Structures are given as C-alpha cells and as structure tokens.
Amino acid sequence: QVQLVESGGGLVQAGGSLRLSCAASGISFSRFSMGWYRQAPGKQRELVARITSGGSTNYADSVKGRFTISRDNAKNTVYLQMNSLKPEDTADYYCNAQLISTYWGQGTQVTVSS
What we know:
By secondary structure, this protein is mainly beta. The protein contains no helices and eleven strands.
C-alpha cells in the first residue's frame, strides 16, 4: 500500500519559514519524481516544485529563490524548505509521487499571516 504522509505545515507570520516533509512508503522511492503542489481556497491545484529521480529541480516562478525542494532517498523523504513566506503562499500543500502511476498525500495546511 502506497502512503505519502506530509508534515510540517502550520501558521507562520509573513517573512517566516517552514519546512515541509513527505515520508513515502510502498514505492521504490528513489525511482520516483517527487513534487509539491498547493491549492488555495477557490483556486486550482498548482505545481510548486518538483525533483526528479536524478535530482533535477524545477519551481513555479512565484516561489523561485524562496523555496527549495530536496530529497533523501535513504529516508524515503522529500522536503520543501519555504523561506520568506508571503500571505499568498497560504494553501494546502500536497506531496506527489510520479513514475508510471501517480500518488498523492493527504495534504498539510500552511497559513501565512500578514
């Protein structure tokens, strides 16, 4: 059974930082491309950042220079370091694993107060 379990969300003031973690089980983690998506109220889910099995990364323009995605294959975990947070970063953040199939976590809420 595949599980992606996010943690690390919470309430933070603008300018603050959070680190999200996503622990995966039931998959050959190192083979998967891993991503973080977010969905704000009333908006579509959007890609925030992605890291391939080879370690290549890409980011949404809105988070470039502020967020960093990384992975630890030994721990089957992907991280999203979020710095200089803005109120517009407020959303539910979801972990995503892609290879042939796609899997989603249950999400973790991030709220940035102004």
